[in-house]
Design brief:
The chain has 65 residues and is mostly helical. 75% of the residues lie in helices and 0% in strands.
């Protein structure tokens, strides 16, 4: 099935079915994001964020949220 076919099918869904599809799609998207985040953390790709935070704390640049 091509993307254009999926798009047309989604556009023809009744409101209740569209709502269920949308919820399912968002959950799947978050699952993929979680896997990617975990992969990036394990690979050290986000280590720079911790370093920036430590540097900001050391230099008194942290703000309370």
């Amino acid at each position: 099935m091509k993307v254009q076919e999926i798009e047309r099918a989604v556009l023809t869904l009744p409101e209740a079915a569209y709502s269920r599809f949308r919820q399912w799609f968002l959950e799947e998207d978050w699952k993929k994001w979680d896997v990617q985040l975990e992969t990036d953390v394990k690979a050290g790709k986000l280590d720079f964020l911790a370093e920036e935070a430590r540097d900001a704390k050391k230099h008194g640049r942290l703000r309370t949220l």
